[in-house]
Structures are given as structure tokens and as C-alpha cells.
Design brief:
Elements (H helix, E strand, L loop, with lengths): L13 E5 L11 E7 L2 E8 L7 H5 L4 H8 L7 H16 L5 H30 L2 H22 L8 E2 L2 E2 L7 H27 L1 H7 L7 H6 L5 H4 L29 H25 L18 E7 L2 E10 L2 E8 L2 H12 L7 H6 L5 H4 L9 H5 L9
Antiparallel strand pairs: 1-2, 2-3, 4-5, 6-7, 7-8
Length: 390
């Protein structure tokens, strides 16, 4: 009502900021929600809090040392980064990787996909307020973490790929193969139990069905990738185009609704496909050497490499000069998926906004790497400042 006690239709929009530290967020980031009557009308996600300048640190390092540094980009996808970085060098230097090493690299990648998807489901359960589901999923995930530790020596940053193959300590013997078989049997059994209880829980299903839906057209327009894109019905998986996956049969999982439920189901159903790939790999793993060191370092032009990682398309590029990397660029899936989630937030209730963001499985630490200041007073004056490029 106005001052004359007349009813008016004036709409008041309120900004609700979350972050940079929030109890529902694993990593620090900031989201601004512009709310009208508790409905989100616009959203803005700001990243950059986790910036460490890894691309700049890599500049000028010997290529093998730079490859090892890429593991520090992301603790969840550390194998994905070092594998793609090695693939970049191998492509530029025309190195043939032994088949046995290729199989073990794929096994590591699929184990990492398993632990990433279980982490996603556990964190999603936390956001939903279901602590019991979250703790049980973390318990199941421990089997994958122990297999990664057994092969690579660490639970994080395993250091398995090197240029031309894998490290000798990561080779698989009969004992390790048997452990992997047992682990896959256990995961398959527990996944069936979890999926049955999860989909039968009316509280959970009511919180995720129809929430923060992204259309197929918007997903394509906003360059969504990976499971986030496949949850809208787009059947795209870069593993289909990777020669490393040619020996293996697997299905590309899609859903049609693009909502939180579809995002969850895509990842739940991708877990058996990863188990299927791992079983094929350990059954048919070829004998032979695991490293090809018969190559010579040489200068290259810019080399590019794309692979499919748990969150979507991962891009690495650099060129080699005197054995050192130059012009490093790393582009992770989250940067475009978060853009799509800003759009998915619109129209949701404010209590579902955080759920809308985490449905794309964002990883802000691996997204934040380099920031260039293009408009700076010292830059305009011609003075040099070592902080002009961070």
C-alpha cells in the first residue's frame, strides 16, 4: 500500500548473496540470487576465489615436470589432467604408447570417474539434507579410493601417466587385478541397494523432480558439457571419439528432463558403465611393455587435446620449445556448466537454488587458474606492474 493506503502492484526485488563460504558448498564461490517473492528471477555466480595461477607457473617448465604439476589443478580429476597433458605432448611428438599402458590409463580414468560420481551423489545428498545417504555413499566410495591408492600409491594425485606410457609402480599384477575384480563386484552390489532406496524415498524424489530444469536447446546454447548436457537428452560423449576407448563396449547414458533428478540419474547409471569398461580392461589387458622411451624431444607448434572427464570436456594445449612448455591453456568443464546453472536457477524457489547449482557437479578449484587484468590504471599509463597479470 502507498502513503494514501491504496493498494499498489509494486514489485520489490531482493538480492540474496551466498558465499564465498557457505555450509552447502564444498569450495568457496559467490552466488547472488535476485529474488522476487522467494522465487529466483536472476542469478550471478562469481568464481576466482581458488585462483592459484597454475598455467603461469607451468610456463617455461620442462614438459615432464609441467605434466606432474597439472595433477594439482584438481584433486578429484588429477589423473584426467596429467593424462590429457601427456596426451598433448605425445600428439605433438608423435609418440606411440604401448597398448598395456593405454589399458591401465583407461582403468585409472574410469576409477576416477567412479569416485567422482560417488562424491557427487554424496554431496548432493548433503544438500538435500539426507546425511545418512551421504555417509553411506562416502563409505562405498572408500573401495574406489583404496583401489586408486593400490595402483598409484596415493589416494589423490597418483602420478600414473608419463610421456610414452605409465610409471612402472602402476603396472598391474595378478593380485591387483583380483582386487579390482572384487572391488567392482562390491560396488555393483552396493549401487543397486543405494539406487533402490534412493528412488523409493518420497522426500528425496519430491525435492529433485522437475527442479531447475534445463532444456536441450538452452544446454546447447550455453555450451553445457558432460553429464549435464546428457541429462537434457543430448547423446554426446567424447570417449566415443577417443582411440583409447575403441576396444571397449559401453553405453552413453542420457535422460530427457534436464532437472536435478535427470542429472542424478545420469551419474548413477554411468557408474555401471564405468564398471563394465574396467572389467573388460582387466580381462583383455595385453601383455608387453608399459613405456615407450624411444622418442626425441623437439620443438612443436601449439598442440591441443580433448578428453572426456567426469564433468565433461577437458581441454589442454601448449607448445614445446627446447623441451619446455609455452602458452599453456587448460579449460575445464565447470566454466560452461556453471554458466548453464545460472540459467537453470531462474524460476526456482530460493531454497532450491543451491541444489540447482550443485546439480552440474561444479569443481571451482580446477576452474580457477588464470586471470588477466585488461583494464588497469597502471597499464594505461604505460608503467609496468608485476600484478597486472595474475
Amino acid at each position: 500500500m502507498d502513503k494514501d493506503n491504496k493498494v499498489t502492484n509494486k514489485v520489490i526485488e531482493t538480492e540474496v548473496p551466498l558465499g564465498t563460504v557457505h555450509s552447502a558448498a564444498i569450495e568457496p564461490y559467490r552466488i547472488r540470487l535476485f529474488v522476487e517473492d522467494e522465487i529466483v528471477r536472476d542469478a550471478e555466480i562469481t568464481i576466482g576465489v581458488n585462483h592459484r595461477g597454475i598455467e603461469r607457473i607451468m610456463e617455461g617448465l620442462p614438459v615432464e615436470k609441467a605434466n606432474s604439476l597439472t595433477e594439482k589443478i584438481c584433486g578429484i580429476c588429477s589423473h584426467s589432467h596429467i593424462w590429457n597433458s601427456c596426451l598433448t605432448a605425445e600428439k605433438g611428438l608423435e609418440i606411440d604408447v604401448p597398448q598395456r599402458a593405454e589399458y591401465i590409463r583407461v582403468i585409472m580414468e574410469e576409477l576416477e570417474r567412479l569416485h567422482s560420481h560417488f562424491l557427487y551423489l554424496a554431496h548432493g545428498s548433503e544438500v538435500l539434507g539426507h546425511e545418512t545417504f551421504a555417509m553411506r555413499l562416502f563409505y562405498i566410495r572408500e573401495t574406489v579410493m583404496e583401489l586408486l591408492r593400490m595402483i598409484g600409491g596415493n589416494r589423490v594425485q597418483y602420478g600414473v601417466p608419463i610421456i610414452g606410457g605409465i610409471r612402472p609402480r602402476a603396472d598391474l599384477n595378478e593380485m591387483r587385478i583380483q582386487k579390482i575384480k572384487e572391488g567392482m563386484d562390491y560396488l555393483e552390489e552396493k549401487l543397486v541397494e543405494f539406487a533402490d532406496r534412493f528412488t523409493r524415498d518420497p522426500m528425496v524424489m519430491s525435492r529433485i523432480t522437475g527442479i531447475a530444469a534445463l532444456s536441450k536447446e538452452d544446454a546447447i546454447r550455453l555450451s553445457a558439457t558432460g553429464p549435464t548436457l546428457r541429462s537434457t537428452g543430448v547423446e554426446v560423449d567424447l570417449r566415443r571419439d577417443m582411440k583409447q576407448y575403441d576396444p571397449f563396449e559401453f553405453d552413453v547414458i542420457t535422460q530427457d528432463d534436464g532437472d536435478v533428478k535427470s542429472n542424478l540419474l545420469v551419474r548413477v547409471l554411468e557408474i555401471p558403465e564405468s564398471i563394465k569398461i574396467i572389467r573388460q580392461a582387466i580381462k583383455d589387458i595385453p601383455e608387453g611393455k608399459i613405456t615407450n622411451r624411444s622418442w626425441e624431444m623437439q620443438d612443436t607448434d601449439i598442440i591441443q587435446s580433448y578428453i572426456e572427464v567426469p564433468r565433461g570436456k577437458l581441454y589442454h594445449s601448449y607448445k614445446l620449445e627446447d623441451g619446455r612448455v609455452r602458452n599453456v591453456i587448460v579449460r575445464t568443464p565447470t566454466i560452461t556448466n556453471v554458466n548453464a546453472m545460472e540459467h537453470a536457477c531462474i524460476g526456482t524457489h530460493i531454497t532450491d537454488a543451491q541444489l540447482a547449482v550443485v546439480q552440474c557437479d561444479p569443481c571451482f578449484t580446477c576452474t580457477d587458474r588464470a586471470v588477466q587484468i585488461v583494464d588497469h590504471p597502471l597499464k594505461k599509463s604505460g608503467k609496468k606492474n608485476r600484478n597486472s597479470i595474475i
